[in-house]
From TrEMBL:
Membrane topology: Multi-pass membrane protein
Protein name: O-antigen ligase-related domain-containing protein
Domain O-antigen ligase-related: 215-349
Lineage: Bacteria, Pseudomonadati, Bacteroidota, Cytophagia, Cytophagales
Segments crossing the lipid bilayer: 17-35, 41-61, 81-99, 105-128, 140-160, 180-200, 212-240, 252-271, 333-357, 396-417
Location of this chain's protein in the cell: Membrane
Organism listed in the record: Marivirga lumbricoides
């Protein structure tokens, strides 16, 4: 697409779109939180609210087209998307043998709902890339700011209303940020994703000191969650950025900061001040290893091929072995797939991830670095919590954004109707 001598200032429009995209992404992620102990209010937010945000993402997509763009995008890395759809189709088919059809259907609907949201959200970014060459709207900035605002709410809340924003664990001995609103480990993952996004703003020197302040808030929030896995994820993200950076001065500053912070963080968060009982807890991954062993030895042989149904891990509401705690979910997203969709489901998921990694490897360097950085906290969380294939959570949302972000490419071939639309709406473009 070429630009003519006609100059049109698109900045006011792009500024509005940036705000719209940030708001709808923030609201979508916020809808995964339990903002009220009232079940009806929570369900209204999680179902009705998310439908409203989904519709808003479509409206923003249409607004960009009406302003002056055409959706002529071509599919790319098709196997990654097709296998994800196959996973959802198998989940839908599993309603026929699910041990709780209503629960499976609800989980499937919410997962599919976020996929549609991501579809229009990412398409909007692609249209901006194709028809507004100098725009500054970036996915990593939107993700980073969304995570920052949500973590800021919790950081302020922990001082203003600690009874609501803290969750007492280990018999009331340890207070962890999250409260009843969000699992501390999930909240820690959100902080890690925010770090992954805002490090790119730091790299491009975008509002440098303001970005550093945001990163400090995110790290403070992550520390307050007491999440070991999220801390490890954040440190790996920083290490990955340092390895990829060509800015020697930035490398020195980041490495020096990590040398100062890491020992204290590891001692306080991972080793819990060297408490012997807590060290034993770390070795068993807080009881997860015995639980996973029982699932494989006792649960899986009952329904090995197709599982117990979408997001179901037993015939009853909870799986419980004689030697483990009762669990409604597996605390491992891959184990979750194995239990709810069997060996057929886990095979689809493994190949889906392989083609996703392959698709990311074929992208440009900035996009490749960004997507890999986002996957680090997502995959670490997936080994210990809900993860990218677990019960509906914002980890699934972020993984779907990654899948769809590698699923399109620009198409230079326009139809006659496309050309008429652009000539009418965008006189600054030379349409041949």
């Amino acid at each position: 697409m070429q630009t003519t001598a006609v100059h049109i200032n698109h900045r006011p429009f792009l500024k509005k779109i940036n705000i719209y995209l940030l708001i709808i992404l923030f609201l979508m992620v916020a809808c995964f939180f339990t903002w009220s102990e009232n079940v009806l209010i929570t369900r209204a937010i999680k179902v009705v609210g998310r439908m409203g945000v989904l519709f808003s993402s479509y409206l923003v997509y249409r607004k960009i087209i009406q302003y002056g763009a055409v959706d002529s995008l071509k599919w790319n890395n098709l196997l990654s998307m097709l296998l994800y759809v196959a996973y959802l189709l198998l989940g839908f088919a599993s309603f026929m043998w699910s041990t709780n059809v209503g629960y499976s259907a609800l989980q499937w609907f919410m997962t599919s709902q976020t996929l549609v949201f991501c579809f229009f959200f990412i398409k909007s970014l692609y249209l901006l890339d194709e028809y507004f060459e100098d725009h500054q709207i970036r996915l990593y900035n939107l993700l980073g700011n969304t995570c920052y605002v949500l973590i800021l709410i919790f950081v302020v809340g922990m001082w203003v209303d600690p009874d609501t924003f803290f969750r007492m664990t280990h018999g009331g001995e340890e207070a962890r940020l999250g409260g009843y609103m969000m699992n501390p480990n999930e909240l820690g993952m959100l902080a890690g994703l925010g770090v992954a996004g805002l490090l790119f703003d730091l790299k491009r020197n975008h509002a440098k000191w303001w970005t550093i302040l945001k990163l400090i808030v995110l790290f403070y929030g992550l520390y307050a969650t007491g999440s070991r896995s999220s801390l490890i994820g954040a440190l790996l993200i920083i290490g990955y950025h340092v390895k990829q950076s060509s800015n020697q001065k930035l490398k020195i500053v980041i490495i020096a900061g990590m040398l100062l912070v890491t020992p204290v963080a590891v001692w306080k968060v991972i080793l819990k001040d060297g408490d012997t009982s807590r060290l034993e807890e770390v070795m068993s991954m807080t009881g997860r290893l015995p639980f996973w062993t029982a699932l494989i030895n006792e649960g899986l042989p009952r329904e090995p091929m197709l599982g117990f149904g979408f997001m179901r891990i037993d015939y009853k509401e909870y799986f419980q072995s004689a030697h483990t705690y009762p669990g409604k979910m597996t605390h491992n997203t891959f184990m979750q797939v194995l239990m709810n969709l069997g060996f057929v489901g886990i095979t689809i998921v493994i190949f889906q991830m392989l083609f996703t990694f392959k698709g990311i490897a074929g992208e440009n360097e900035e996009k490749k670095l960004m997507l890999r950085s986002l996957l680090i906290p997502l995959f670490i969380n997936s080994f210990t919590e809900f993860g990218i294939f677990g019960e509906s959570n914002y980890g699934i949302l972020f993984y779907q954004l990654v899948i769809i972000y590698i699923s399109f490419k620009q198409n230079t071939i326009l139809t006659p109707l496309n050309k008429i639309h652009l000539k009418k709406r965008r006189p600054d473009l030379l349409i041949s």
